[in-house]
């Protein structure tokens, strides 16, 4: 049993004790709870475990996902800090930012707005939330199918919103958005990788690399894994913590593994899967000879800064750290007014915040990300993105992953 609830508790009791759980349930398979009458009747009579079994959902997996959500919610900084109303401005900037760099980025943005407010004869509003809160409000606007309801500039990590043909696909196919960056940091523009969008619809400002956190006390005679293939091997069955609480990173992880290994790679990841922890918890999971701790955790590069002691080491995969890019799109219709904002978020000043403050390597050409020649990246590539419905693919991958865990 976790510290927040028991899966045998009534749903109503879990919701009453834990803020945000009802919205989490609605966004994760229980859409009917948006109807107050249905929620009132069902939640007081049905336990969480019973409800999940009725929907044929994996109870253990869902519990871990909900616990990770609550851990993130309780540990984050004040989510209302810097929040602005949007909708009544000439230009609206919306989206989500990685938690560790959100506050310093917004501080820089506020400074820039103050310094330039007399320069532009139009108003700018923004609502850039912490990434762990998700994109539900923006997705609702996207579903309306009305270009005028969308923000002028939209930022987000991950693949599920921008590359889902049922969501942003309708606008991108109609050339509603246009943005580009012809000059890019050599870390991301070389003979191995090129993050520049050839269709000039997306701009990538930085990336979240996924690396290995290895608990040497839990290896039990096994060699330290060096590649993604090592992680997927039988040797690491039931030994790897997967970042399912970080959906952006998880989606980037499984899409990349699918590209390289097909659905067999997803099944192998499910075989290796041990538990789902927030990255901060993964770093703390270092008890000696504790079989409840994973031997390897897949975590954002940022969290390697928290490692203490000799029992844990960070490993940058030899075949490349899988990246979850931080994307930006901008409306073509308001491009002239939004261009200064695009330039700001693609500036050297912001690049330093990405790279130095949060270990999120920046794509700005002037930034030294402090990476060695061996620290390469694994990226699905624009050709793969264009030739697949990424949204539908992620749904199919998650289905196979969940079924493989349940078996």
From TrEMBL:
One GO CC term on file: outer membrane-bounded periplasmic space
Signal peptide residue numbers: none
Gene3D superfamilies found in the cross-reference section: Periplasmic binding protein-like II, SP0561-like
GO MF term set: thiamine binding; thiamine pyrophosphate binding
Matching InterPro entries: DUF1858 (IPR015077), ScdA-like_N_sf (IPR038062)
Keyword Iron: no
A GO BP entry: thiamine transport
Keyword terms of this UniProt record: Signal
Domain DUF1858: 7-62
Pfam families: DUF1858, SBP_bac_6
Name recorded for this polypeptide: ABC transporter substrate-binding protein
């Amino acid at each position: 049993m976790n510290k927040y609830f028991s899966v045998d508790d009534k749903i109503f009791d879990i919701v009453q004790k834990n803020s945000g759980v009802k919205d989490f349930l609605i966004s994760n398979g229980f859409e009917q709870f948006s109807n107050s009458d249905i929620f009132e009747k069902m939640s007081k009579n049905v336990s969480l475990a019973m409800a999940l079994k009725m929907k044929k959902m994996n109870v253990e997996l869902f519990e871990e996902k909900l616990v990770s959500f609550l851990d993130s919610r309780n540990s984050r900084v004040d989510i209302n800090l810097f929040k602005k109303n949007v909708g009544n401005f000439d230009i609206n900037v919306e989206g989500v930012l990685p938690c560790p760099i959100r506050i310093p980025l917004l501080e820089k943005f506020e400074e820039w707005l103050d310094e330039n407010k007399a320069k532009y004869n139009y108003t700018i509003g923004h609502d850039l939330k912490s990434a762990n809160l998700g994109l539900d409000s923006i997705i609702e606007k996207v579903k309306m199918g009305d270009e005028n309801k969308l923000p002028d500039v939209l930022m987000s990590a991950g693949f599920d919103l921008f590359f889902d043909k049922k969501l942003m696909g309708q606008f991108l196919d109609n050339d509603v958005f246009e943005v580009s960056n012809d000059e890019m940091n050599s870390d991301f523009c070389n003979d191995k990788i090129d993050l520049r969008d050839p269709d000039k619809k997306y701009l990538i400002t930085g990336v979240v690399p996924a690396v290995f956190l290895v608990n040497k006390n839990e290896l039990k005679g096994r060699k330290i894994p060096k590649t993604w293939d090592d992680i997927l091997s039988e040797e690491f069955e039931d030994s790897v913590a997967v970042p399912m609480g970080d959906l952006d990173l998880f989606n980037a992880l499984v899409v990349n593994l699918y590209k390289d290994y097909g659905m067999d790679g997803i099944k192998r990841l499910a075989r290796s899967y041990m538990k789902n922890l927030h990255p901060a918890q993964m770093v703390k999971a270092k008890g000696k000879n504790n079989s409840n701790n994973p031997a390897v955790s897949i975590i954002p590069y940022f969290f390697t800064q928290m490692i203490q002691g000799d029992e844990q080491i960070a490993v940058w995969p030899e075949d490349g750290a899988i990246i979850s890019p931080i994307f930006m799109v901008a409306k073509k219709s308001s491009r002239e007014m939004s261009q200064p904002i695009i330039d700001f978020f693609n500036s050297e000043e912001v690049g330093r915040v990405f790279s130095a403050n949060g270990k999120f390597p920046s794509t700005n050409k002037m930034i030294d990300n402090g990476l060695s020649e061996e620290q390469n990246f694994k990226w699905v590539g624009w050709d793969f993105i264009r030739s697949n419905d990424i949204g539908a693919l992620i749904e199919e991958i998650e289905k196979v992953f969940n079924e493989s865990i349940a078996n």
